[in-house]
Amino acid sequence: MPDHLNPATEGSSGAGGEASEDRPKGTVMPAEMIEVSIDAPQFQVAAANPERVEHGIAVMFMIGLLGFMGFGASYWQNYSNFWLGITLGVGFFGLGVGMVAWGKYLMPRGPFSEARHSAAPTPEEQQAFLTDFTSRGKVAIERRGFLLKLLGAAGGVFTIVAAFPLLRSLGPLPQKLFYRTGWKKHSYLVTFEGRRVHEDDLVKGGVLTVFPPDDIGGALSQTILIRLEDASYGDVVTAPGRKTWGPKGYLAFSKVCTHAGCPVALWQKALDELLCPCHQSIFKVGPGHPADAVFGPAPRPLPQLPLYIDKQGYLRAQAPYNEPVGPGFWERGAD
Ligand code: FES
């Protein structure tokens, strides 16, 4: 056995015994090809009874495996945080204790000392290092294939369980949901109680939250109907191309704020402005003003619902909204 692998020489000059004394001071000892024997004392494990330790480690890995499986099942079944914490804790505890015990009791003991050599290694020295490194690791790992498999199984189960949030928590893709509301061509405007809104129902300057009959209470369909105070407005044109959208002073806008989606529920009659209570965005309404955002963080006007009044005097939608309602999103405008 080469001296430089012998624990007994640790702390010496690094040149390994008496041979170093023959060399002039300041020279370094050339690297040697190392013959490694797995019977060398420093390759022996620290445990007095390795088999018993192996069993103990296997038990800890099994506990870790069961813990991770329990965590996966608890997560899938939507159990409380208590169970998620307990099972994940048990999983990591078993895995951690097993790995630490493996390193402490079953890996070669060392210490390993080598001769100090030139900082720039020769090809022979590199080869010697590789031989040493691979043979040590190989011996330590190959001897315990069963533990390795258990470690791989525990790690594999944890990896799968860690992917659960992607499969379960994100839910289905929204697809075209953000582009659609419950409004259709000729939808009646109805109240939360389902009553159709007649042109005589609202006082001038009044507002009312309305829905399409098929989606009463719908978060995306909620619409604010406004009857402007000034009767002289007649048909109100808020923007070019919207000549017929506001009959007899009635205007309807999506109630979903274009900033963060709060309901725009406050109407300032004296100023013809809608106010979002969440972050104080203000939307100006009236002739030439299609609920454009004049103050606050809202980036866009509220979408306008085109209206008409039928022969019986009921307010109805000419068509659905012509753009997505609410805040912006990734795919908006992609089509
Ligand atoms: S959600 Fe309306 S201003 Fe922020």
Provide a descriptive summary of the structure in words:
By secondary structure, this protein is of the alpha+beta class. The protein has helices spanning 50-76, 81-106, 123-142, 145-162, 164-169, and strands spanning 207-210, 223-227, 250-254, 266-268, 273-275, 282-286, 289-295, 307-309, 315-317. It folds into two domains: 3-169, no CATH class; 178-317, Rieske Iron-sulfur Protein. Helices cover 29% and strands 11% of the residues. The longest helix has 27 residues, at 50-76. It is elongated, with a radius of gyration of 38 Å. The structure holds FE2/S2 (inorganic) cluster. FE2/S2 (inorganic) cluster binds at residues 257, 259-260, 262, 276, 278-279, 281, 296-298.
How many domains?
Answer: 2
Q: SSE string, helix = H, strand = E?
A: HHHHHEEEEEEEEE
Largest sheet: 4 strands, antiparallel
The amount of beta strand, in percent, is 5-15%
- Helical coverage, percent range: 25-40%
Flag low-confidence runs: 1-28
How far do the termini sit from each other?
75 Å
Mean pLDDT: 84
What characteristic shape results from the CA principal axes? Answer: elongated
Computed Rg: 38 Å
Number of helices: 5
Major sheet: order of its strands? 4-5-6-7
Query: Which small molecules are bound?
Result: FE2/S2 (inorganic) cluster
SSE class: alpha+beta
What tags apply to this protein structure?
335 residues, alpha+beta, Rieske Iron-sulfur Protein, four-stranded antiparallel beta sheet, three-stranded antiparallel beta sheet, disordered N terminus, binds FE2/S2 (inorganic) cluster
